[in-house]
């Protein structure tokens, strides 16, 4: 990836993510590092799958948006899964080849950023977009330019028999509300097809 391509990807990722912060770019670079080790391109559909050890708060949430932007594994396509282990780490799987790599953020790096002015302000309740750019931008620059092995450890490629969940085109109408639903969302009640909203 050229510097220009990386800049473009970063800009798209910031728009998608919503604010400038150091953790999203860290996820972006982690995703790229995993793809490079696996020798794969960004997922157009579900060629790749991310098993993320993050949970839904603070740096972990931002980090996973960066991983999604880099890998093309997105919640909409359903090829990201959150394991809620409260750790900045994930496994990227090349589904067809049955191979994966695990990326973990260097704990020294994480410890240092937790002592930063950025996190100090965040802990006081300042929103990421309200942290002054003179604090945020040097941190982003550092993440985007640091050598990969300072930021993460990337495992060797390993074999995996991971099978992603399969979708269905089978589709029905709810007999009560008339709305359309894919089959796994339908229930049979007294011989009628009932959706989960109507059943509730
Ligand atoms: Zn963020
Ligand atoms: Zn219904």
What is the fold's blueprint, element by element?
Layout: H1 3-17, H2 23-38, E1 48-52, H3 58-71, E2 80-82, E3 89-94, E4 99-105, H4 107-114, H5 117-123, H6 133-145, H7 148-151, E5 152-154, E6 158-159, E7 171-173, E8 180-182, E9 186-189, E10 192-195, H8 196-199
Parallel strand pairs: 1-2
Antiparallel strand pairs: 1-3, 3-4, 4-5, 4-6, 7-8, 9-10
Keywords:
10 strands, binds zinc ion, about 20% strand, Wheat Germ Agglutinin (Isolectin 2), domain 1, 6-stranded mixed sheet, alpha+beta, about 200 residues
Total number of helical segments? 8
Task: Give the helices and strands as they follow along the chain.
Answer: HHEHEEEHHHHEEEEEEH
Shape: globular
Q: Say what the CATH topology of the largest domain is.
A: 60s Ribosomal Protein L30, Chain: A
What's the rounded overall pLDDT mean?
A: 95
Structure description:
The chain has 200 residues and is α+β, with helices and mostly antiparallel strands. The strands form three sheets. Strands 1, 2, 3, 4, 5 and 6 form a six-stranded mixed β-sheet that branches. Helix 1 crosses helix 3 and helix 2 (23-38) packs across helix 3. The longest helix has 16 residues, at 23-38. The mean pLDDT is 95. The protein has two domains: 3-159, 2-Layer Sandwich (60s Ribosomal Protein L30, Chain: A), CATH 3.30.1330; 167-200, Wheat Germ Agglutinin (Isolectin 2), domain 1 (2-Layer Sandwich). It contains eight helices and ten strands. It is 40% helix and 20% strand. The radius of gyration is 20 Å and the shape is globular. The structure holds zinc ion (2 copies). One zinc ion (ZN) binds at residues 174, 176-177, 179, 195, 197-198.
């Amino acid at each position: 990836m050229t510097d220009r391509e990386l800049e473009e990807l970063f800009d798209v990722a910031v728009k998608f993510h919503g604010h400038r912060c150091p953790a999203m770019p860290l996820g972006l670079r982690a995703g790229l590092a995993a793809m490079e080790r696996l020798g794969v391109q960004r997922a157009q559909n579900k060629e790749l799958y991310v098993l993320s050890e993050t949970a839904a708060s603070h740096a972990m949430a931002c980090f996973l948006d960066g991983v999604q932007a880099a890998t093309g594994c997105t919640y909409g396509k359903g090829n990201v899964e959150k394991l809620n282990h409260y750790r900045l780490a994930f496994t990227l799987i090349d589904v067809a080849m049955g191979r994966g790599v695990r990326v973990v953020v260097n704990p020294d790096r994480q410890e240092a950023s937790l002592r930063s002015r950025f996190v100090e302000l965040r802990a006081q309740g300042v929103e990421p977009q309200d942290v002054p750019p003179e604090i945020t931008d040097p941190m982003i620059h550092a993440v985007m330019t640091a050598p990969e092995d300072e930021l993460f450890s990337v495992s060797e490629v390993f074999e995996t028999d991971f099978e992603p969940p399969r979708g269905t085109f089978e589709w029905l109408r709810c007999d009560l509300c008339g709305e359309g639903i894919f089959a796994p969302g339908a229930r049979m009640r007294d011989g009628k097809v009932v959706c989960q909203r109507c059943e509730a």
